[in-house]
Write a structure and sequence with these properties.
Blueprint: E1 9-24, E2 27-39, E3 42-46, H1 53-60, E4 68-73, E5 76-77, H2 83-90, E6 93-96, H3 108-119, H4 125-138, H5 154-166, E7 172-176, H6 184-201, E8 204-209, H7 212-218, E9 221-226, E10 229-234, H8 236-240
Parallel strand pairs: 3-8, 3-9, 6-7, 7-8
Antiparallel strand pairs: 1-2, 1-4, 4-5, 9-10
């Protein structure tokens, strides 16, 4: 399966990262990261577990503060804006957590209603219902609307987590290990969904993964993170055909194509 050709506006940068550093005590996780994300583009950050991939997107979303460097999202310096402005910016950023982060005490409908009722209080009951049904339709799970998270499979929970993110109509999607813990068939379903979201909603996305299949099939570009730095940035073919010793170990992964 090949990724569809999409229009990516390289005249419009939606995320700019410059000289980004982050340490936890003596553990230097990020050591000078530079990256631009363009409108309509999926960018994969590829790396082994524990290399700082998730730290990077938490800084982008303003959930962590960097030690040095700048992150601009949709023209705003994340570290410099006030709390209220940051809250408004976050409404434009969809964060798909590795764990799906659903509330077990709420039905699927209630999980999707929650961000709307919290952040869009002007909506009518009919408008909320329509938004919930539209988001569930987008991820192919309309039939689960009255189910509880415990009744869903791991792949379904991932999809519902993405639906709850989409309901706020974000301009940017951040996916944290979207295929982690899933079987190969379900992983392919999530990969297809990531591409469908990009095409249907014209989102710009960062996809954090160590799954080469996910990286190959979702990203227009990828950045390989090793030892706190991007050692390669480019297309999948460029990165894995140039013979760089630092990225050879990733060939040990199996592909689903």
């Amino acid at each position: 399966m090949k990724k569809k050709e999409l229009h990516i506006d390289k005249n419009k940068v939606v995320i700019t990262i410059r000289d980004l550093h982050k340490s936890f005590a003596s553990n230097h996780v990020l050591r000078g990261i530079d990256l631009d994300i363009y409108q309509g583009e999926n960018v994969v950050v590829l790396g082994r577990s524990g290399t700082g991939k998730s730290v990077l997107i938490k800084i982008i979303a303003g959930l962590l503060k960097s030690d040095k460097g700048t992150v601009n999202v949709l023209g705003r310096n994340v570290a410099a804006i006030r709390s209220r402005e940051l809250e408004q910016l976050r409404l434009k950023i969809g964060f798909s957590f590795q764990s799906s982060a659903l509330y077990d005490s709420m039905t699927v409908r209630e999980n999707l209603e929650f961000p709307l009722l919290r952040n869009s209080k002007h909506l009518t009951v009919a408008e909320v219902t329509h938004a919930v049904e539209t988001a569930l339709d987008a991820v192919g799970l309309s039939q689960t609307i009255n189910q509880w998270p415990a009744e869903l499979s791991g792949g379904q929970r991932k999809r519902i987590g993405i639906a709850r993110t989409l309901i706020m109509q974000p301009a940017i999607m951040l996916y944290d290990e979207p295929t982690a813990g899933l079987d190969p068939v379900t992983s392919m379903e999530i990969i297809d969904l990531i591409n469908e979201v990009q095409e249907r909603f014209n989102t710009s996305s960062i996809i954090i993964t160590h799954d080469l299949t996910c990286a190959k099939l979702t990203g227009e570009r990828m950045a390989v993170l090793l030892d706190g730095r991007f050692v390669q940035v480019g297309t999948f073919e460029t990165i894995f055909k140039n013979g760089d010793e630092q990225v050879k170990s990733f060939y040990e992964y199996n592909f689903i194509t």
